[in-house]
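In practice, a research group might receive sequence data for several interacting partners and want a quick structural hypothesis before committing to experiments. The following worked case mirrors that situation: the sequences arrive first, and a predicted assembly follows.
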Amino acid sequence: MTGYTGLLWLARRETLRVSKLWTQTVLAPIVSSLLFILVFGLSLGDRIRNVGSVEYDQFIVPGLIAMAMVQAAFANNASTIFQARFDRYVNDILSAPMHPWQMTLGFVVGGVYRASLIGVGLLALAIPLTGVGIERPLALIAIVALGLVLFAAFGTVVGIYAESWDATTFVANIVILPLAFVGGTFYSIELLPSPWEELSHFNPIFYLVQAMRFGLLGESDVSIWLSLAVTAVLAVAAYLWAQWLFTSGRKLKA
Amino acid sequence: MYRDYKRCGARGNDVPAALLPPALELRGLTKRYDDGTLAVEDFDLEVHDGAFFGLLGPNGAGKTTAISAICNLIRVTAGEVRVFGEPITSLKARSWIGLAEQDINLDRFLSVRETLTYHGGYFGMGREQAQERAEEMIDAFDLRAKRDVRAPKLSGGQRRRLLLARALMHRPRLLILDEPTAGVDFELRQELWRYIRRLHAEGTTILLTTHYLEEAEELCEEIALIRGGKLIARDTADGLRERYDATDLAGVYVKAMQAG
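A structural hypothesis for the assembly, expressed as tokens:
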């Protein structure tokens, strides 16, 4: 008895949930992000000058994809854990012969899966619409992996601490969404006056957006290594926090 | 009181009962909740392999807390829990326990078949094995017509049957039933009793909590009465009646709770 079979089934359950609710979990975020690309990029793009050497409709694509993926990874895990706690079927998992790290990983897989589907879908649509390419695929894969683990794990943490649905949506709407909007999705921070430019460096989503932009367009306001390092440190911290909750049972077990 | 020899079944060979570790062993179990409530204190309990054991007590007596401790669902304040000699922290011990909780707690996103199959998977069953067993359980609990229906769309009785089927999915050696017939109609209760009796006859150890005293008297070989998180009496139904000079278990219960 090693718990690996349980881990696979839990991961499968989490991906099944995403697939069963695909219109809400995958289609809706793709459509809303696509509208941003169409409205801001294609409609307004002609009236906005290039950002650096990049056309505006291409410039906003990495940030919009990052925003959609981050929100999906977070929302998926916050809701799946909170629902499982609320309906108490999380007990079926907590009582199963699985190690706490396997439970953490099993849940994180769901958020990563959902956000990856959205990212791939959006990219597949953005490439023909805007002509955006993939300049640095390895950097792109690395930042996507780190960013999704970060926000899926953070969603898990919030889903475990939350006492109501409002708490999970509060974090999504009041913390993650504003950070995503001011994370350099629609502009280069070089255009910002002081202290806003400096303050942007304290926004974790800024590094994610920059690294995504580097991966897709080959350009970034900061070093790719700094972006990867910051996101990696935060991803490890969020993951360990989630795992500590499963190990200690805090908020999961009375 | 107990079988001298374990029946062929869960373990396969006849082994003297004295040589077997107890199915369940609680030593000094104490649980104080975060709000300060002391639910059980220094609670000891031993249930022999193959027993049908009843745990009775009023609401708040500590029955569900004890069960939650056995199933890794609460953070134990102090004490030790062992299942068939293995500490509950081990995966092996957890794989031997099947739990049907008092409240219906079914995964709202899964159908009947998926509920069973995924539970089997969490407990280490491979895909084919889990699917095959799930079909067996669907037939055993008369859920064939609802096989692809999600839990929220089932009737109360069907949900209760699914809950029990899920607990049995991975063939547990120790089955814990926390008020399994609460809110269940007479016909389904009789049906569940028949199934539970058959499991016991096949060698499964059963720990039952119930508020229906006639249910405990009818099913259990041995009964423990708890109140305020402490064990106040433990014996067969006959033994308890004699001890409390009562004609039935209801009389025993009233006297024991007053004296306790």
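Before designing any experiment, note the following. Chain A has one domain: 4-248. Residues 150 and 236 of chain A are 7 Å apart (CA to CA).
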